[in-house]
Amino acid sequence: MRVTSVGHAGFFIETAAGSILCDPWVNPAYFASWFPFPDNSTLDWDRFGSCDYLYVSHLHKDHYDPKNLTDHVNKDAVVLLPDYPVPDLRRELEGLGFHTFVETEDSVKHRVSGPKGDLDIMIIALRAPADGPIGDSGLVVSDGTTTAFNMNDARPVDLDVLAEEFGHIDVHMLQYSGAIWYPMVYDMPARAKEAFGTQKRQRQMDRCRQYIAQVGATWVIPSAGPPCFLDTELRDLNDDHDDPANIFPDQLVFLDQMRQHGHDKGLLMIPGTVADFTASELNSLEHPVSTEEAEHIFGAGKAAYIEAYAQRMAPVLAAEKSSWAPAEGEPLLAPLRAKFEPIMAQTDQICDGIGYPVELRLGGETVVLDFPKRIVREPIPNEKYRYGFEIAPELVRTVLRDDEPDWVNTIFLSTRFKAWRVGGYNEYLYTFFKCLTDERIAYADGWFAEAHDDSASITLDGWEIQRRCPHLKADLSKFGVVEGKNLTCNLHGWEWNLENGRCLTSKGHELRSRKLG
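Given the sequence above, the corresponding structure tokens read:
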């Protein structure tokens, strides 16, 4: 099996039974905030696009690149489709001209047969509202000799099925770096922001190491990040100035962490790097440049590399910005009311979970999303808000013009906004913004309405607690960490007070717990 990095979460997997192109992202994403790092724009995309199979893990724009798929990828490629609750991914790919699909079943091993032979595959599909744009996934592929697990940025809850169906995993690709806007965009004291950033940087790498330990693969390829920020306004988000609170560490940082914890089989891969495997044997690893040059990109030469990259991409960035809607125009109250109120009317779980009016500052205009009353309105004099956002009106006008179903996958991941809140994170609020269609909001509301079984218990550091995390049902025997009287689930970093079971991260989500002895 030959595995070529095509950048970020993208891989080109070649076997005797056919080739699979995974998540081929090259064009800037999220209002031109994110670019692949290192630069992958000079790869031979026509060669990679002549694949036998295509796998797009989910619709986040650093995985689903419609322009690249349109321009370079063979439309006769067989699409390996995750088992998602809403059909958005299939519809998008059909709209680009793809017409042959293998509809997989979540966490079930399938054999796909083509003119070149047979491959065994499994797609682990995550379906919670917090998982991507209503769905995220990881792909397992075996050619009978070598087995690779491309987990990209998915966060599976239960991985026992891997060993049950495939035995030993030879190669594991997964995310270790940040892909979020917290805490950078939040209005909070600098010291608090630094503390939260430092904590998040380490926790996301700790979570990655826990997954590595669970999967037990021989070789690990850190991937799916970090993005590169080339716009001058966002340049400080790059981890190129020794900031311990930066949530976007790169591959060399994580590979060093792996070595510190006794794992020396992590592989640095940049766009164009080719790794050749036979079972758990690494036959060769070839970079498109020397090893010293590859490592220099992430080390002493990183800031200069990003500056040169920004200069090359300046016309691309300018073209992207010119495609945005103008900042000036008619008041936004009416179109936001038309967009949001029909969605609000369909969801009791989410509106009640948000529980308060939310302020949107849009240039010189303020609009209030009154979730308790299910209306969009003007502000009331001296009104106080528990949650608020400041967003450039041109971004809002663009997503309204384009009828975007997901503001998380457009505005929020761009980091081109400011936010504030009183109290903890509210999962329901961001879920609302990613579910701006009838199908999505119906699914998410139903998901929150389900009663999840919490009857099984585990013992952890002197406490008896429910086994499954109240957030997304992670196994706390694997992801739970007790520090004093608090429990942290490292899958998403949520915390609970063990004495009273109260969630310290978000409203609701109480934990069953009691002190032993």
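The mean pLDDT is 95. Try to locate this feature in the token string yourself.
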